[in-house]
């Protein structure tokens, strides 16, 4: 009788363990968490299945929401100027000398300022559309941005803060002026104004210094590595190393985009290349120069435009191309625009691209914001957006 009882208890215990595993069969909520070296050394059980290890090192999105837009993050700012949040695309652009936050309705295609106050001049510091410097990011269902802090007055110079969208306003979430920020693995990574690399781990208010000197750009995290470009090359930093150091992967690159499987980059002659995540196996993908500023990717395709010799905004500057990432040899022109393409933005999970055009120059030689078009991923249905001024 005792033997039967013990056997029944053992069966119930095994079923309980199985139920726990079934509640999160793909380990989605832990897939992006970086363990410390000490935690890895203490691991005594067998390693997880091979497929889960692959997801940890190559997953290009936050597992919880699936729209962490690494493609857009690597354009101009660490987190790009177009992000998908709660069914709308948010973006910032310069209007009448100030950076404003706009929203694009995915259902109607209408563009409006985030601030809906008809009496607002959009120049007040409490205006939700004003002072958004960029670095837009959607992570774990929350919306973050880099905002300009003018509380110190004109003499204080440019001070930028990390802020989160809460109750219709941006609220500063950490102290200090930043150059850039981005989330990954449940952590907040910050490049400070004096070029230190910090990490706020698991919501902590106290940062840990990863590097005292770090001045890279277009930063994205895959697995344990932070990938960056530094003007004439591509590098990465091992975030699990006891002493983080910059490892140069490619020395001949003007910029880079990382999709979790490959690094795409134009070399210093602007020929598009692709290499492995460790910098190995570089192969050319185009036989003539592309325009480095207008490149991006989605799940299936890589998008770009060519440049015409010394005239990057001359002939063919409005022609949009793409290739299937599984077969880069098949390059196709999918659209022709009447203006020069300056930037390409993708909307993960949607058959939609935003194409920002080159603007005109003002009397001081500054390049103004140009038109913006939406177009399907196959190049059809191009529509010029009607963007209201401030």
Structural topology:
Blueprint: H1 2-22, H2 37-42, H3 50-58, H4 70-73, E1 82-85, E2 88-95, E3 98-105, E4 111-113, E5 132-139, E6 142-148, E7 160-166, E8 169-172, E9 178-184, E10 187-192, E11 197-200, E12 208-211, E13 217-222, E14 225-229, E15 234-238, E16 246-250, E17 257-258, E18 263-266, E19 272-275, E20 283-284, E21 290-297, E22 301-306, E23 319-324, E24 327-336, E25 341-346, E26 353-361, E27 367-375, E28 383-384
Antiparallel strand pairs: 1-2, 2-3, 3-4, 5-6, 6-7, 7-8, 9-10, 10-11, 11-12, 13-14, 14-15, 15-16, 17-18, 18-19, 19-20, 21-22, 22-23, 23-24, 25-26, 26-27, 27-28
Account of the protein in words:
By secondary structure, this protein is mainly beta. It has one domain: Methylamine Dehydrogenase, Chain H (7 Propeller). The protein has four helices and 28 strands. The protein has helices at 2-22, 37-42, 50-58, 70-73; strands spanning 82-85, 88-95, 98-105, 111-113, 132-139, 142-148, 160-166, 169-172, 178-184, 187-192, 197-200, 208-211, 217-222, 225-229, 234-238, 246-250, 257-258, 263-266, 272-275, 283-284, 290-297, 301-306, 319-324, 327-336, 341-346, 353-361, 367-375, 383-384. The chain has a four-stranded antiparallel beta sheet, with no helix packed on it. Strands 5-6-7-8 form a four-stranded antiparallel beta sheet, with no helix packed on it. The protein is globular. The model is unreliable at 1-68 (pLDDT under 50).
Brief summary:
10% of the residues lie in helices and 41% in strands. The protein is mainly beta.
């Amino acid at each position: 009788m005792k033997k039967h009882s013990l056997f029944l208890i053992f069966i119930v215990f095994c079923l309980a363990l199985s139920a726990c595993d079934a509640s999160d069969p793909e380990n989605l909520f832990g897939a992006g968490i970086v363990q410390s070296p000490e935690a890895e050394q203490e691991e005594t059980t067998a390693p997880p299945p091979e497929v889960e290890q692959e997801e940890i090192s190559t997953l290009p999105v936050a597992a919880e929401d699936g729209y962490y837009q690494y493609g857009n993050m690597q354009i101009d700012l660490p987190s790009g100027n177009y992000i998908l949040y709660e069914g709308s695309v948010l973006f910032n652009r310069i209007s009448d000398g100030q950076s404003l936050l706009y929203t694009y309705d995915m259902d109607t295609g209408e563009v409006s300022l985030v601030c809906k106050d008809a009496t607002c001049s959009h120049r007040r510091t409490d205006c939700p559309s004003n002072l958004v410097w960029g670095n837009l990011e959607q992570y774990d269902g929350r919306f973050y941005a880099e905002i300009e802090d003018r509380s110190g007055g004109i003499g204080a110079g440019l001070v930028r803060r990390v802020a989160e969208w809460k109750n219709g306003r941006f609220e500063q979430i950490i102290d200090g002026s930043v150059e850039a920020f981005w989330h990954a693995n449940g952590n907040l990574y910050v490049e400070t104004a004096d070029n230190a690399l910090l990490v706020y781990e698991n919501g902590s208010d106290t940062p840990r210094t990863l590097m005292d000197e770090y001045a890279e750009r277009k930063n994205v995290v895959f697995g344990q590595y932070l990938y960056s470009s530094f003007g004439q090359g591509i590098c990465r930093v091992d975030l699990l190393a006891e002493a983080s150091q910059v490892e140069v992967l490619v020395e001949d690159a003007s910029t880079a985009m990382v999709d979790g499987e490959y690094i795409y980059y134009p070399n210093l002659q602007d020929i598009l290349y692709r290499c492995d995540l460790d910098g190995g196996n570089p192969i050319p993908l185009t036989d003539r120069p592309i325009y480095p500023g207008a490149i991006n990717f989605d799940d299936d395709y890589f998008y770009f435009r060519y440049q015409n010799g010394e005239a990057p905004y001359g002939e063919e500057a409005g022609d949009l191309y793409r290739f299937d990432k599984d077969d880069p040899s098949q390059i196709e022109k999918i659209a022709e625009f009447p203006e020069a393409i300056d930037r390409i933005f993708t909307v993960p999970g949607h058959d939609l691209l935003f194409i920002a055009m080159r603007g005109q120059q003002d009397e001081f030689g500054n390049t103004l914001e140009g038109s913006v078009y939406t177009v399907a991923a196959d190049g059809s249905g191009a529509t010029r957006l009607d963007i209201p001024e401030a």
